[in-house]
Amino acid sequence: MSLLLDHIVIRVQDLEQSIAHFGSLGFTVQRGGTHADGATHNALIGFADGSYFELIAFLRDAPEHRWWDDGAHVGDGFVDFALLPESVAATIDGAGQRGLVYDGPIAGGRLRPDGERLEWQIGKPRSADLPFLCGDVTPRRLRVAEGAVRHHENGARGVANITLVVNDLDASVARYRALLGAIDVQRAPLPGYGVALAVLRLGPTGLTLLSPSRTPDDADGFASDLRRHLAARGEGVFAVALETHAGGTPRRFASELTHGATLELVAGS
């Protein structure tokens, strides 16, 4: 059963400010509305490949919420990503038969600013290195708008790659095999960097898993950056590369405008 990228979640403290900031970077931002539990509201940045960014902010204290950041201790930035199943229940069942437990299906929903009510189901993993599942009950086109809103002045067309940082590469690869079934995983060290990596694909999107060596022998190197990320934010999304058209201009977006999300634009093939 193939699973494609659905969306990537960026937590922000101030939704209006984040809408303005991402808009200034050349993204077309849509207001999403308020979630059914009343704890959060969001805005979306949709891409031509069907995936999207979700900018999400809290409307009230919600310590029961998986993305709640008590006292803004961790801060803004990437907090999660989701895959799109044809059936959440069937995907959870298939993963369970391969030894991986997901909780759900759990009902979710959102009220759009125009009054349209959306419904979906989610499946929650029990480890932070894995994505959650988000499957629509109402038509997906109501949740993820089509047309001109997927055009961006900066040329972004889709998610080329998601980089995750994980504690134990072997354990994470095993969990992804249990989730996705028969997949091709390429493994390689990064000589001189103290980092091991594995690469797999979610349709057009690459997924790169990075794990720093357990010996902190590079106090100022890349592996040290990964260890600091793990200590501060835990396992999960570390960086995202967006694809633009062939011959497009690569760029790194300013982190103060992406609310701490490490985000770059790369030229497509």
Automatic annotation (TrEMBL):
<feature type="domain" description="Glyoxalase-like">
    <location>
        <begin position="5"/>
        <end position="180"/>
    </location>
</feature>
<dbReference type="InterPro" id="IPR025870">
    <property type="entry name" value="Glyoxalase-like_dom"/>
</dbReference>
<dbReference type="InterPro" id="IPR029068">
    <property type="entry name" value="Glyas_Bleomycin-R_OHBP_Dase"/>
</dbReference>
<dbReference type="Pfam" id="PF13468">
    <property type="entry name" value="Glyoxalase_3"/>
</dbReference>
<protein>
    <submittedName>
        <fullName>VOC family protein</fullName>
    </submittedName>
</protein>
